[in-house]
Amino acid sequence: MSVNKLGKMAVIGLSAALIAGCSTTATETDTSSVSETEAKTVAAESTVANSNDSSAKANDESFGANGNGDLSSVIVDGNGNVVSADVAAAAETAAANAKDMLLGVAHVFYFDFDKSIVRPEAREALAKHAKYLVANPDAQVVLEGHADERGTREYNMALGERRAKAVSRYLTIQGVAAAQIESVSFGEEKPLEFGHNKSAWQANRRVEVRYE
Amino acid sequence: MSFFSKESYGLPMLLALSLHLFLIVVSLVAVDFKEEQDLRVNDRPVVQAKVVDISQTIIGKKIEENKAKVKAKALAAKQKTQRDKKRKAAEQALKDRKKQLAQQKKQKQAVEKKARVAEKAARKAEADKLQKRQAAEADKQQVAAKKSQQAKADAKKRLAQESSKADKAKKLAEAKKREQAKINQQKAAQERKRLEVIRIAAEQKKRQEEAQQALVQEKARKEALAAELALQAEAERLDDIAEAQMLQSMSGLINQRIRSRWIRPPNAKNGMRTQLSIFFLPTGEVDLAQITRSSGDDLFDQRAVDAVYKMGRIEELSELDPYVFERNFRQIEIIFNPQDLRR
Amino acid sequence: MKKLKCFSLGLMMLLLSGLAKAQLVIEITSGADQLLPLAVVPFAYEGQDALPADVAQIIENDLKRSGLFEAIPRTNMLSLPSKKEDVHFRDWRLLKSDYVVIGSVKQIDASNYEIAFELVNVLSQKTVEKHEGLAVKASGMRDAAHYISDKIYKLLTGVRGAFSTRILYVTAEGDRAAPTYRLQVADADGHRPQVIVESEEPILSPSWSHDGRFITYVMFRDRRPNIFVQELATGKRQKIAQYKGLNGAPAWSPDGKQLAIVLSKDGNPEIYIFDIATQKLNRITNHYSIDTEPSWEPDGKGIVFTSDRGGNPQIYRVDISSKAVERVTFEGDLNTRARMTPDGRYLVTVQKNDGNYHVALQDMKNGRVQILTETYLDESPSIAPNGSMVMYATTYNGKGILAVVSVDGLVKYRLPSAAGEVREPAWSPFFE
Q1: Which chain A residue shows the shortest CA-CA distance from B32?
Q2: Which structural domains are found in chain A, ordered by start?
Q3: Does domain C166-427 have CATH number 3.40.50.2300?
Q4: Which residue of B has its CA nearest to C99?
Q5: Which of A188, B6, C314, C325 is the most exposed place for a label (fewest CB within 10 A)?
Q6: What's the CA gap between C271 and C294, in Å, rounded?
């Protein structure tokens, strides 16, 4: 057999193996909220990052999840000394209970037309919401999805719900318990802006995060 | 040790060698180590230009089509003008023929009149002659009668005057005279008869001549009639053509008038069929529209009838020759059969 | 021998008849796409009080709105007859009116009247229909006029009139950010509106039962959508769905025993059938995409619905017994909110093309699609029970209004504009 042929077959075989290994399980036709691989790779990174951070500072860049979605249990203080997990947790809860966590954090997230993908710029704020919810297991959040006026009302109800669910999924990935989240849709019934133009429509395609 | 014993290496070595040799030979001969000959494909030139026959391309075909269309149009126009010309010529010929016919008719009539008048005059002249002759004869007879009376009276007188002597002589002489007179009379009568015979013969001759003349005239008249009939037939043929054309244009007119007023009901479908009989008045108005065959749908039928009544008066019908109107348009049939509906 | 004689005689007659003069025959295969011109003469009135309603004007408006008639304006009428003997047919032919409606109203006492009317064919000068002595109450004068419109419509088109039907719709009035929502019912021409439900939270998707006695709708309570069923005559209301997630798009089955609804309690929006008697749910669709906006086929064997399982939302059909799903619409960028005409022949949807949302009509026999509207941001089409007209919501001068288009697309008109925004019309069935 020619070397060329063998080489080609080898490449093909290897690629197939790679692809099979990398294929996602997401099956939504409308591209899903956050790709799993991304989450995984991010998670892989964050285990390292987590161990360097314990306080609830604004420059927290962790997405908070390792392989099974648990927060890392190894906490190190500013001097690099390992601190007892319980002590650290208590300190954190105290800080978290002050709703400063959510001060200045966005409560409204916007979407592209006919899409329910969480935009990259929203992830930071959502992460903070996630953190808050994780820190406050009794807290209940309602995600209210909306759509712009175009299209029919009941379909827009479904579209609004899909957006709320996208945010909800994102939060659960961050560790929020499903029981804390309720997804509701208002469809096109409660617009923020009343124009019949692109900017009004953009303003209405949103999910609002509300704590009950 | 022997070559074939179990412990010697001879046989295995031989087998191994032969196997290897065999493989080498096979691989050299049967298996092709060369690369696939794909490179040969690239020997083709980069650009392949082909001379395109424009008449086969779409553009070329379109140009051809357009040319053909223009030609066809010109031809059609030409044909149309030719047809028009022909038609006009035919119409003109018809007119001329008609004129001719009329003229000939007139002439014939004049000739006949003259002949009649001449006949009358001839007959009158004859009658007069006859009368004159009869009158002359009557006179003659009267004169003769008078004469005989006078003669009788004279005779009596003479007898009375000449009684005895002269009586016999006179009687004889008178008898002689009487005889003479008789003879004279007889002669005169014979003469008269002779003249009569001559006259009758002359009259007979005349009558014969007249009869002959009449025959000749008859012949002439018949020939004239035949010619006339032939002309009439020709005129009728042209009339038929004209009438057929008129029928076609009138049908088209009526069709268009009704079509533009026929509002179909919502449930009408292609293929439904209503037939109406329409009765026109010579003024061109619709006298009556009757359903001869229903479509099965009363509403569909009613809309058809409405369309006919909405047509109003067709002036062109009132301008037709009454006989033509009567023959063709007193009653016509109209079939409503939509083919243009979407349903 | 006799037989032979008869036969030969018959044969001869046949031959002779064939020799009879050929008649001119004209065949007409196309016609005029026109409105039928008709004149509705103001009814003569005999009574002391002012006429409760201009019956002739209501009839004229009804017939004009149906998209099949053209009315001769009153100002053009040369005379105003109320009896056939007073009709000068030549006058009406001059006005190019094919038919004329004449009538009279007589007051009997303070609340009782008597109406007579006659439909006359101007072309044949014959009476098509005549009614006398219709007893009417003052409050029912409009209904009487619609009754007469129905009769005339049926006589002149063969189709049952839908002028005595009603419409449901939702209005939003007041502060736009926090309006008051009202579910209302009115005559099909928009007159005599009555409020059925009022709420500070949204109301949507109203729908009639097939006998017109019950309605169903979605109303938000505590910021979550619930589905209600209400009896119109008594106002009695029952909540039939309040699950987690979506509760929406309720649609009555033709036999009135079930409601198709949309729930997302099992993960994503799916269609369920709710049995009113047993209160049991039967899941009909099972797909990870959005399945919503169900509507029953007239024979009750299938449901058409909106699904984006193919990418963009289109209309699909599910067979109720086998649950088999097949796609129904293939044109336009997307199709949503399908409704079928009562004869099952046409499907009305909201279709998007080049960014515009219009009401579209699809012929189920040959697949032909026709766009019916040219207005802006059209939605919620609802079909009249005689299948001749479609009412829908649209925007006009920046405001939400209701409009009507005939199924053949020829006639369009807007309903009298109510205060605030109007949306979600639902055309009632025939009231038997």
Answers
A1: A1
A2: 36-211 (3.30.1330.60)
A3: no
A4: B306
A5: B6
A6: 7
Question: How large is the greatest C-alpha to C-alpha distance in chain C, in angstroms?
Answer: 103
Q: What value does the mean pLDDT take over residues A95-116?
A: 78
What are chain A's partners, defined as 3 or more CB pairs within 8 angstroms? B, C
Q: What is the pLDDT of residues A51-75, one digit of tens each?
A: 333 333 333 333 333 333 334 344 4
Measured from the Cβ of residue B286, the count of other Cβ atoms closer than 10 Å reads 17
- Mutation target for B interface from C123, C128, C155, C346: give the one with most B CBs within 10 A: C123
Q: What is the ipTM of this complex?
A: 0.89
Q: What contacts C193, CB < 8 A, 6 or more positions away?
A: C184, C185, C186, C418
Residues in chain B within 8 Å Cβ distance of A2 = 33, 35-36
Distance between CA atoms of residues C246 and A147, nearest Å? 14
CB contact under 8 Å between C176 and A194, yes or no, is: yes
Portions of chain C given CATH number 2.120.10.30:
166-427
| CA C144 – CA C142 distance, rounded (Å) | 5
The CATH number that domain C36-157 falls under is 3.40.50.10070
Tracing tokens 């003052």 back to the chain, one arrives at C138
Q: Please name which of C99, C107, C105 lies closest in space to residue C117, comparing C-alpha atoms.
A: C105
Average pLDDT, chain C: 92
C264–A153: do the CB atoms touch at under 8 Å?
no
C338: left (phi over 0), alpha (psi -120 to 50) or beta: beta
Interface test with A, best of C207, C220, C246 (most A CBs within 10 A): C246
Contacts of C388 in chain B (CB under 8 A): 266
3-state secondary structure C354-386: CCEEEEEEEECCCCCEEECCCCEEEEEEEECCC
Residue B184 φ/ψ region, left for φ over 0, alpha for ψ in the -120 to 50 degree band, beta for the rest: alpha
Q: Are A152 and C309 in contact (CB < 8 Å)?
A: no
Residue in C171, C200, C223, C378 to test binding to A, most A beta-carbons within 10 Å: C223
Virtual CA dihedral for B281, B287, B293, B295, nearest 10 degrees? 120
Q: Which residues of chain B have pLDDT under 70?
A: 1-6, 30-62, 162-167, 343
Which own/partner pairs from B245-249 qualify as long-range (CB within 8 Å, at least 24 positions apart)? B246/B320, B246/B324, B247/B328, B247/C24
How far apart CA B149 and CA B143 sit, in angstroms, is: 10
CA distance B280 to B286: 5
Please state, in angstroms and rounded to a whole number, the distance separating the CA atoms of residues A106 and B234: 105
The burial class, CB within 10 Å (0-12 / 13-18 / 19+), for B101 is middle
**Both tokens assigned to B223:** 């020939």
The amino acid sitting at B216 is V
pTM of the model: 0.66
- Reported as half-sphere exposure (CB side, CA atoms, 13 A), residue C411 has a value of 17
DSSP annotation of B42 reads G
Residue A131 backbone class (left: φ over 0; alpha: ψ -120 to 50; beta: rest): alpha
What is the distance between the alpha carbons of residues B102 and B110, in angstroms, rounded to a whole number?
Answer: 12
Q: How far apart are CA B276 and CA B301, in angstroms?
A: 9
C18-26 long-range contacts (CB < 8 A, ≥24 apart) are C21/B327, C23/B331, C23/B332, C23/B333, C24/B247, C24/B251, C24/B328, C24/B329, C24/B332, C24/B333, C25/B332, C25/B333, C25/B334, C25/B335, C26/B251, C26/B254, C26/B255, C26/B258, C26/B332, C26/B333, C26/B334, C26/B335
List the structure tokens of C226: 């619930």
pLDDT in tens, C346-395: 999 999 999 899 999 999 999 999 999 987 789 999 999 999 999 999 98
Beta partners for residue C406, in sequence order: C389
- Give the tokens for residue B117: 């008048």
Q: Region C393-411: what's the mean pLDDT?
A: 87
| Kind and range of the H or E run holding C127 | strand C126-137
